[in-house]
Amino acid sequence: MQAETSTRGAVPDLAYPPRKKSRLAQLARELGKNKHYYILMSPYMIIFFLFTVIPVVFSLALSFFYFNMLEFPRFVGWQNYARLFLNDDVFMMALKNTFMFAVVTGPISYFACFLFAWIINELSPKVRAVMTLIFYAPSISGNVFFIWLIVFSGDSYGYLNGFLIKYGFMLEPIQWLTNERYILAIVIIVQLWLSLGTSFLAFIAGLQTIDRSLIEAGTVDGIKNRWQELWFITLPSMRPQLMFGAVLQITGAFAVAEISIALAGFPSVNYAAHTVVTHLMDFGTIRFEMGYASAIATVLFGLMIGTNMLTQKLLRKVGD
Fold it and tell me: Which residues lie closer than 8 Å to 271 by C-beta, 6 or more apart?
C-alpha cells in the first residue's frame, strides 16, 4: 500500500516535467552575471562597430550602386562586379600582382619571423633584447623604406648600380624603378624586409610564455630532439600567437600600396606594381566612383576572409 502511494505521488513529476528556461532568459542572466566584463569591453566594442563593422556593411551595400559623390546613389545590381571581372584589365593585373605579393611575401615572411624568433629566444636576455630591437626597428621607423630609393637609384650614384659598375658586372646604370622587369621583384624584397616586425615580436612573446615543465614532461614521454619538441610542444602552445601573426601577415600581403607607390610611382610603369589597394585608391580617391571602389574593397575583403579561414584550418593541424 505504501509502495502504491509513493508511486502515485511520483506520477505528477513524470507527467509534468519542469519547464526549461528560455534562451533569452539564460542570455539575460549571463549578461547580468558578467556585466563588469562587458562594461570594460564596451569602449573598444563601440569604436570597433563604429569604425570597422558599420563601414564594411555600408561598403558592401554601396557596391551595388553607382555613386559619384555628386548625384544620389543609383542601384545597378551586379553591374560593378561584372565590370570589375569582365571589362577591367587593369584590375586583373592588380589582382595577379596582389596574389604574387601574398604567395611570396606572406609565407616567407611568416616562417622567417618564427625562425628568427625561435633562434633569438635561445640567446641570453641582453643579446635577445638587442636583436629584438634590431628586427623590430624597421616596422616602427615610419618611412624608413625610402632608403631603398637610394639603393635602387637609376643613376651611377645608386648603391646597387655603383657596386655593379665598379666590379665590372655592367657598363651603364639600370633604371631599376622604371623598368617593368624589375619593379615587382624590388617591391617584394622591400615588403619582405618590412614584414619582419610585429609578427616577430608576437612570436618572441609566445616563446617566452611556454611552460618549461611541458618540455620536461615531453622529454620523459619520448621527445628525442628539438624538432619534435618544436612540433609537439612549442607550436601547439603558441597557437594564439601563430594565429595573430598569420592575420598580420595576410593583411600586410594583401594590403600592399604605400611601398609600391613610394618606389614605383602611382601608377607604376605599365601597371607592373599595381595592386588591388592602389586600384581601390585610384577609383575611390581620384575618380570618386565610390560604388565601383566599394566593389573592389568587397572583393579584397572576401580574399582576406577566405585566406584567414584557410590559415585557421592549417594551424589547427599543428602538433597532430
Answer: 90, 93, 94
User: Residue length, the chain?
Assistant: 320
Rounded-to-integer distance, Cα 156 and Cα 18, Å: 87
SS3 315: helix
The three cell numbers of residue 30 are: 549571463
Backbone φ and ψ for 244, nearest 5 degrees, come out as -60, -45
Q: Which DSSP category does 137 fall into?
A: G
Angle of CA points 141, 143, 146, to nearest 5° = 120
48-77 pLDDT, tens digit per residue, is 999 888 988 999 999 999 998 888 889 988
Name every residue whose Cβ is closer than 8 Å to that of residue 122 and which is 6 or more positions away in sequence: none
As given in the structure block, the three cell numbers for residue 174 are 639600370
**For the chain, first and last CA: distance in Å?**
62
Exposed, middle or buried, 303 (CB in 10 Å: 0-12/13-18/19+)? middle
Specify the pTM.
0.77
